[in-house]
Design the sequence.
């Protein structure tokens, strides 16, 4: 049986660039065909910007790896034209159970808010996620979009110049030089690009090992997230059971620090552990086993001249709370429209510094959240374990203690509160969740009109609620108006108006709010737009 | 609400006796666990993060720890 991750999806093929007399210059070259690199290429190409992905491999990721995709990345994928296959294939879940020792202490329901197109989370193996992105690349190619994936193309050397980047690319047929106006390094936590450029990557190493296993079984476990603290089958450690599509279950077992990784990975050692967890009677087959340690760290800056780091190459978090691939896709969401405006000559290069500013805020928020989860799951001192166990004991009987239980927090998009691109909030009586810097909350527009986010994105948009606004052109950009009635009691009124009777929002191409007012002012909109593209301080 | 560090217990001697009685016959580990649960229960009752931060500060800056 050929699993999807065993099939070359972008096999090596000779590029015309290899036969050119002089090095060919491409607009944007992306290193890494993982979730982040693929999302970046699709985002650029569907807006007409040439994107070439180089990857040293030719297949999607091996094993499930990232498995939880949160609502915001799914909304971004909708904008990229490939959200639906992910949601169709993914497993949706809202229920979770928490176990401590040999007993269940409580269960919970995520109770997602109504009126959103996408669920809070889906579980989907990273190889499917990548496969659907590659399919989207193929569809764009069929439409004539300027996008390409070059498999078995390993970047061996990088030269940075004021106006371009030069790359030495190694292929099965020898190496060639490729030039790029801009380079996106999406080459993962061990980023060779970062190493070749001699850049920092500082942070905290957590001294622990986790065994992760993908197990295929026909078991009657419900579609829930089960988390164990100190279970009898893994004394003193933790364990996680999570369902993926195709009857594949993801099991994470904490192993502790002082172990022999190669020994622990052997099936004869893994299988007894799983039998102790699942019960002797459950039949299962091991699909993939891996052992990981993790770190929380980030680069000091994500932009280095014409080289932009995105995803794990720029920041690494512990896996608790699904913040790796999810935040990487949000990096590209933030970066690509800015890069397009710079390439199109609409904005100055300095706009890209706001990518660094905004996504560093996002990375720090993720690192903080995942470090806190890690400290709860793997207590580092006696007193830390005493408090952790006290919280779990109390959570069995008292609701107040349950919010203290931290087995990973829901990954939510960050609000760029102090971004230089934001205009002052002139509508504080409207909900804080839609203040400048926020990702637009989705809203059901009612009676078959679909969802708000499907109407936003890829361009600056004026959203007028309960008032009239006029389209305008400024700084080389044409802004459309989306005018919608937001009656009391509607999602739109609850999420965008609050106590205000009307509102005008300026929405960025990445569906974040740039500015908001109680009505239409041409002067204010022009100034806010210039500010949002870095033209006004 | 600012942290109240003046005398506030209805009956100080009774509370102190109750506190010791709760630990009667417990091992060190059981006592540590009880104390931790008690801190969490009281912290939840107070609720306000600023007040709790003041309390942590007051606890951290008194006693032998302060010298080290």
Sequence:
């Amino acid at each position: 049986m050929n699993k999807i991750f065993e099939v070359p999806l972008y096999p090596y093929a000779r590029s015309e660039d290899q036969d050119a007399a002089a090095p060919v210059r491409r607009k944007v070259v992306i290193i890494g065909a993982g979730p982040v690199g693929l999302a970046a290429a699709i985002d650029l190409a569907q807006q007409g910007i040439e994107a070439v992905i180089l990857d040293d491999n030719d297949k999607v990721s091996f094993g499930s790896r990232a498995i939880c995709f949160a609502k915001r990345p799914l909304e971004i994928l909708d904008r990229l034209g490939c959200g639906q296959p992910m949601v169709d294939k993914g497993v949706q879940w809202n229920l979770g159970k928490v176990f401590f020792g040999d007993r269940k202490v409580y269960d919970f329901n995520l109770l997602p808010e109504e009126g959103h197109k996408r669920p809070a989370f889906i579980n989907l193996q990273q190889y499917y996620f990548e496969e659907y992105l590659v399919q989207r690349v193929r569809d764009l190619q069929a439409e004539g979009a300027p996008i390409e994936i070059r498999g078995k193309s390993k970047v061996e050397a990088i030269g940075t110049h004021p106006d371009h980047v030069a790359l030495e690319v190694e292929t099965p047929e020898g190496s060639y030089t490729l030039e790029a106006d801009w380079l996106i390094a999406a080459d993962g936590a061990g980023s060779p690009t970062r190493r070749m450029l001699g850049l920092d990557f500082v942070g905290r190493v957590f001294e622990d090992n986790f065994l992760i296993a993908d197990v295929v079984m026909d078991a009657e476990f419900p579609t829930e997230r089960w988390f164990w603290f100190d279970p009898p089958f893994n004394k003193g450690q933790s364990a996680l059971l999570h369902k993926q599509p195709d009857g594949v279950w993801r099991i994470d077992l904490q192993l502790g620090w002082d172990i022999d990784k190669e020994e622990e990975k052997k099936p004869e050692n893994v299988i007894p552990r799983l039998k102790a967890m699942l019960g002797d009677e459950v039949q299962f087959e091991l699909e993939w086993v891996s052992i990981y340690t993790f770190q929380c760290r980030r680069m000091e800056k994500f932009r280095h001249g014409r080289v932009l780091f995105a995803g794990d190459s720029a920041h690494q978090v512990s896996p608790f709370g699904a913040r790796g691939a999810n935040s990487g896709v949000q990096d590209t969401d933030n970066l690509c429209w800015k890069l397009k405006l710079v390439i199109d000559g609409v904005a100055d290069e300095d706009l890209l510094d706001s990518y660094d500013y905004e996504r560093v805020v996002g990375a720090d928020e993720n690192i903080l959240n995942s470090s806190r989860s890690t400290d709860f799951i793997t207590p580092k001192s006696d007193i830390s374990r005493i408090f952790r166990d006290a919280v779990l004991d109390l959570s069995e009987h008292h609701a107040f203690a349950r919010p203290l239980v931290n087995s990973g927090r829901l990954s939510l998009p960050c609000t760029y509160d102090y971004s230089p691109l934001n205009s002052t909030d002139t509508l504080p009586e409207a909900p804080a969740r839609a203040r400048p810097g926020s990702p637009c909350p989705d809203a059901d527009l009612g009676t078959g009109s679909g969802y708000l986010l499907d109407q936003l994105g890829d361009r600056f948009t004026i959203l007028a609620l309960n008032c009239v606004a006029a389209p305008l052109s400024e700084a080389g950009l044409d802004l459309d108006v989306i005018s919608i009635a937001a009656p009391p009691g509607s999602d739109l009124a609850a999420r965008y108006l609050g106590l205000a009777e009307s509102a005008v929002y300026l929405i960025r191409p990445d569906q974040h709010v740039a500015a908001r007012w109680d009505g239409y002012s041409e002067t204010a909109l022009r100034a806010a737009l210039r500010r949002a593209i870095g033209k006004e301080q | 609400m600012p942290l109240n560090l003046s005398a506030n217990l209805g009956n100080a001697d009774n509370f102190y006796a109750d506190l010791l009685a709760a630990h009667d016959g417990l091992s060190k580990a059981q006592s540590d666990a009880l104390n931790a649960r008690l801190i969490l229960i009281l912290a939840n009752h107070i609720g306000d993060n600023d007040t709790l931060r003041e309390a942590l500060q007051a606890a951290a800056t008194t006693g032998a720890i302060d010298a080290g």
Q: What stands out?
A: Chain A touches chain B at residues 383, 386-387, 389-391, 393-394, 398, 400-401, 404 (CB under 8 Å). Chain A has a mean pLDDT of 93.
